[in-house]
Amino acid sequence: MTTQTTSQAPTTHGTPVTFDHVNKRFGRTRVLHDICLEVPGGQTTCVVGPSGSGKSTLLRCTNRLEEPDEGRVLLGDTDVTDRSADIDAVRARIGMVFQTFNLFPYRTALDNITLALRRVRKLPADEAAERARTHLASVGLAGLEHRRPGQLSGGQQQRVAIARALAMEPEVMLFDEATSALDPELVKGVLSIMRDLAGQGMTMIVVTHEMRFAQEAAGQVVFLDHGRLIEKAAPDKFFGAPESPRLQAFLSAVT
Ligand SMILES: Nc1ncnc2c1ncn2[C@@H]1O[C@H](COP(=O)(O)OP(=O)(O)OP(=O)(O)O)[C@@H](O)[C@H]1O
Predict the structure, then answer these.
(1) How many domains are contained in the chain?
(2) Using CA atoms, how far apart are residues 204 and 14, in angstroms rounded to an integer?
(3) Domain ABC transporter, which positions (predicted)?
């Protein structure tokens, strides 16, 4: 399989994301403790940690799929957590790829992409279709435009989901364990697309269990444990000389 994300339409690079003293509880359980994190524009930030440590919750605070109880999340200068913010406008600036693809099952790959382009970006049908074809080709799916999700492999479905997010020309891409539901042989193709995007300078926040991806593609890696940000460093330092005993134990268990 060849994947050439270089042919895609230009994206706006460089929007940073700031988590400013973010706290989140579910009922009486506190799942995020005072998280402060700068996600630099044009870089990939990987978030790793044990199951239940709050990685997805933190990611989902970026586009307010979860609402922090306290603290702010900024997308560039926009306070996403401001209740008066136009959340649809905010979400239109952020692409998100989920573990479970979240495609419309009765729509073709092409339609899965054109729907949002027409509804949100208000593109005319022919322009939306052309843009969708370009993005499907960029993730190696030329010729499969008219297949429905059930007629595609998990890896191909995930690539449709990535193409759909990219077609919206987002400023920031969020990946929530995008390869966790895939058979091992399909993981590589999806990671290679994500690696290409990182190389092109897309701002990305990636929740992942793929340590090698974090090592190779991230500008910084963040370790969460029990809802606390324990350590944050460039990959060489994070994997080569972790400071906290908790991170040292986590890395020896997973690598
Ligand atoms: N909607 C919810 N209602 C109640 N508790 C929740 C909800 N979503 C998450 N939690 C709890 O919050 C904690 C953090 O969950 P989260 O999914 O953010 O962790 P995670 O690090 O992404 O885990 P995993 O790696 O297993 O996906 C967990 O204890 C989880 O059970």
Answers:
(1) 1
(2) 10
(3) 17-251
Tokens at residue 134, please?
């370009």
Given a contact cutoff of 8 angstroms between Cβ atoms, the answer to whether 97 and 59 are in contact is: no
Nearest atom of ligand 1 to the alpha carbon of 224:
21
Residue 26: strand pairing partners = 29
Q: What is the DSSP letter of 224?
A: E
Q: Which residue among 46, 56, 60 is best mutated to probe the pocket of ligand 1, counting the most ligand atoms within 8 A of its Cβ? A: 56
CA–CA separation, 247 vs 30, rounded Å? 21
DSSP category for residue 102: -
What is the domain range of residue 189? Answer: 5-254
Ligand 1 atom at shortest distance from the alpha carbon of 27: 4
pLDDT-based confidence at residue 186 (cuts at 50, 70, 90)? confident
* Closest atom of ligand 1 to CA, residue 59: 18
Between the CA of 84 and the centroid of ligand 1 the distance, in Å, is 27
pTM higher than 0.90, yes or no? yes
Q: Tokens for 70, please give them.
A: 């306290």
- Domain CATH code at residue 138: 3.40.50.300
What is the spatial distance between Cα 84 and Cα 6, in angstroms, rounded to a whole number? 37
Residue nearest to atom 13 of ligand 1 (CA): 52
Q: pLDDT band at residue 35, thresholds of 50, 70 and 90? A: very high
